[in-house]
């Protein structure tokens, strides 16, 4: 991810030239040092971006549409190439024509959505190992997929010895490959191990194998855990068949919330008869606990007659609210923050409001705003408080915050006060001079957050669920 850093003196002395048609500030700087000189390719890329941005205000609709498609095409197929485009786009402002502002917003939303959709394609694994250790296999999988596997058996007092692993996969989906490997090694997954890894533990005696127990859709794994039939003797309309599912995802993903609208859920028997949902107007919504790698969802169906011994198929749509990508924000020289400072990445704006000392504790007040929140702040705010926030001193040492307080919340914005315990002048110098610098001098603040939130639909189908 691109990080902001202190600008070199050559850029700081740049003169500003305005393009009145767009309201975009362009910097004309003195010749840069050779090592900082912009490559021809970079310059051509920025020139092409600005040409297409100006074209967003063309008179003809076809030319405006071509400019939009051209900018989206420049985003490329990867998250890094998308970051490159988003960093090159000018920030929307009131001096721009409305068509340009609207076009830039559309481009940002489209790029963020495509990045998110690309992340919901399953990872694939190719392995050909013989007598390999678990650690060696885990390393190979992480290199190919970005998914980290961690051996957590020691944390549970389990035997850490595993027989050498022999496996051969050719372009297999991640979950299919992992389930097969875990069955071979007598392992399973502990979904609440924290961190960004899939925690592996020993499988309990009598537990069924993972292969054949679940359905796969994209980077998600759907496993029916329990089926509970409830028959009300007083009110038969309250009879219910609860199907409890475990929905897991590849550890490289960080979903915020998952939902399954019951109106989009279809259950059929072996005779192809359709089973009704108990409350079809409802949606089963689950907020993801930070650090977990799965959630459980209970799907309520109308209790069928006793002759129905299984659900032949259960299909629906999982809607995943997830970050499109992550961005890093860096604010330098905190002692000089006399008024709010703002930085934007994609559809996210971070505002540093002030940094001050309050009874020996330093407070950093900030606001995070999402242009298109997708309900991520209205109903699901837990992810915001998991964002990374820390200071960096002059020596480059990282200083974690000691806690935080919520200052404000709306549907599109949240304000947080981060608390830092910094050394005071008396701790560093027993006899400080009258002309001592501001204690905040030399500190920078780094904040990492998703640069956009999108809702992605994942179609799934589970077959042959036995009924009690």
TrEMBL record:
<feature type="signal peptide">
    <location>
        <begin position="1"/>
        <end position="25"/>
    </location>
</feature>
<keyword id="KW-0732">Signal</keyword>
<protein>
    <recommendedName>
        <fullName>Bacterial type II and III secretion system protein</fullName>
    </recommendedName>
</protein>
């Amino acid at each position: 991810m691109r990080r902001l850093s202190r600008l070199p003196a050559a850029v700081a002395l740049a003169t500003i030239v305005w393009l009145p048609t767009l309201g975009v500030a362009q910097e004309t700087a003195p010749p840069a040092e050779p090592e900082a000189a912009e490559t021809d390719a970079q310059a051509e890329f920025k020139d092409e971006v600005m040409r297409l941005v100006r074209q967003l205000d063309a008179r003809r609709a076809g030319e405006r549409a071509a400019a939009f498609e051209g900018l989206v095409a420049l985003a490329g197929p990867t998250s890094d190439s998308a970051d490159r485009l988003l960093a090159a786009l000018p920030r929307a402002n009131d001096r721009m024509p409305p068509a340009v502002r609207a076009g830039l917003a559309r481009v940002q939303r489209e790029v963020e959505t495509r990045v998110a959709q690309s992340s919901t394609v399953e990872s694939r694994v190719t392995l050909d190992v013989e007598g390999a250790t678990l650690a060696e296999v885990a390393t190979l999988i992480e290199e190919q997929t970005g998914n980290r596997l961690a051996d957590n058996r020691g944390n549970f007092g389990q035997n850490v010895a595993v027989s050498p692993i022999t496996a051969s996969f050719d372009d297999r989906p991640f979950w299919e490959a992992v389930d097969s490997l875990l069955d071979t090694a007598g392992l399973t997954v502990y979904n609440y191990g924290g961190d960004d890894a899939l925690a592996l533990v020993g499988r309990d005696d009598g537990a069924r194998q993972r292969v054949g127990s679940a359905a796969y859709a994209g980077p998600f794994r759907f496993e029916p855990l329990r089926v509970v039939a409830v028959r009300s003797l007083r009110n038969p309309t309250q009879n219910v068949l609860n199907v409890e599912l475990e929905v897991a995802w590849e550890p490289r993903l960080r979903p915020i919330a998952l939902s399954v609208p019951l109106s989009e859920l279809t259950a059929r028997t072996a005779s192809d008869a359709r089973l009704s949902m108990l409350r079809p107007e409802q949606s089963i919504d689950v907020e993801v606990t930070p650090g977990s790698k799965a959630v459980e969802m209970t799907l309520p169906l109308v209790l069928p007659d006793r002759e129905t011994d299984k659900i032949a198929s259960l299909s629906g749509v999982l809607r995943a609210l997830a970050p499109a990508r992550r961005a890093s924000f860096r604010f330098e020289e905190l002692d000089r923050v006399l008024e709010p400072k703002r930085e934007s990445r994609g559809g996210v704006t971070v505002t540093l409001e002030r940094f001050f000392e309050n009874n020996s504790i330093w407070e950093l007040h900030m606001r995070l705003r999402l242009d298109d929140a997708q309900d991520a702040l209205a109903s699901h705010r837990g992810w915001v408080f998991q964002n990374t926030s820390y200071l960096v001193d002059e020596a480059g040492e990282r200083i974690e915050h000691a806690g935080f307080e919520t200052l404000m919340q709306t549907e599109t914005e949240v304000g947080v006060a981060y608390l830092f315990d910094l050394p005071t002048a008396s701790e560093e110098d027993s006899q400080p001079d009258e002309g001592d610098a501001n204690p905040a001098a030399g500190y920078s603040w780094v904040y990492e957050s998703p640069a956009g939130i999108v809702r992605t639909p994942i179609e799934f189908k589970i077959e042959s669920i036995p009924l009690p």
